[in-house]
Structure to design on (100 residues):
């Protein structure tokens, strides 16, 4: 039984939201620990704001880069699998036609 395409889209959207939420939580913890280790005042000072800004930008840039590299890798892997399947079909058709 094949699942409807809209169910797959909903599942993919849920996974994407979970991934973004996880990235945000990790980024928040990492940048807070690095830039605001001992928050004693209610407002951030200029150095803390600058540190958080740089940390968040780097975290998002790296996350985007890793995501695009992963996507490229998955596309290459899919093309390789398709090539293997085509080769297997050619071999099957070659040996299948020689049996008769």
């Amino acid at each position: 039984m094949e699942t409807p395409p809209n169910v797959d889209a909903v599942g993919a959207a849920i996974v994407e939201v979970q991934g973004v939420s996880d990235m945000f939580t990790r980024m928040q913890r990492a940048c807070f620990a690095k830039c605001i280790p001992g928050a004693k005042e209610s407002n951030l000072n200029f150095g803390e704001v600058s540190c958080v800004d740089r940390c968040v930008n780097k975290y998002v840039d790296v996350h985007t880069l890793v995501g695009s590299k992963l996507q490229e890798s998955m596309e290459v892997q899919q093309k390789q699998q398709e090539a293997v399947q085509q080769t297997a079909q050619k071999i099957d058709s070659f040996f299948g036609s020689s049996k008769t």
